[in-house]
Design goal:
Blueprint (H helix, E strand, L loop, with lengths): L1 H17 L20 H9 L2 H6 L2 H4 L23 H16 L9 H23 L2 E2 L14 E2 L1 H17 L1
Antiparallel strand pairs: 1-2
Helix pairs in contact: 2-5, 2-6, 5-6, 6-7
Length: 171
């Protein structure tokens, strides 16, 4: 009896599934979700990462400048995410999108948006190269074009950052 019931349920499910002739592609599309972010939104999102640069406790826990007395896990040598990849996929990619896309002048002066994006890009790369030394810079942020960018020397990155800041200042 149990097998017959299961068979009937299976046949009913197959019948119901096969009865759909046309699936609407917009069935699972959220109408309230944005499809494209504006330049000001991308800049604001990148700015949200700025406090993370100075509030990360790992720089002072590793050399034991600070240690915890009650919750000692922070001062031990385990890290959850101690690399720079999240900076590339998050705020730096947002800023690169601002610099390489066509911006809408209705959201504010385009020149100002580009200048702010260049300043923030220089600041983020300054933080990365100060902390990790040689990092991907000249071939970085190319998305699908280059999955393994070369590491640039720290001095070359600094020279490029000064040029980027001069460009932002000239705007």
């Amino acid at each position: 009896m149990k097998k017959i019931k299961s068979l009937y349920i299976l046949l009913a499910a197959i019948t119901l599934i096969s009865s759909c002739k046309k699936m609407d592609e917009n069935l699972n599309v959220d109408p309230n979700r944005a499809t494209k972010a504006s330049g000001t939104q991308l800049i604001a999102n990148a700015e949200l990462s700025l406090p993370d640069m100075s509030s990360s406790p790992f720089g002072v826990h590793y050399p034991q400048h600070l240690s915890n007395t009650s919750f000692t896990d922070n001062s031990r040598y385990t890290t959850v995410n101690f690399n720079f990849y999240s900076w590339y996929t998050g705020p730096l990619m947002n800023l690169e999108t601002v610099l390489t896309s066509t911006l809408d002048a209705n959201e504010g002066p385009v020149v100002n948006q580009v200048a702010v994006a260049k300043i923030l890009k220089a600041y983020f790369f300054w933080f990365l190269t100060d902390r990790w030394g040689d990092i991907p810079y000249s071939e970085a942020l190319k998305a699908k074009e280059n999955f393994t960018p070369k590491y640039d020397k720290q001095q070359d990155i600094y020279n490029s950052l000064f040029k980027l800041l001069d460009e932002a200042n000239a705007a």
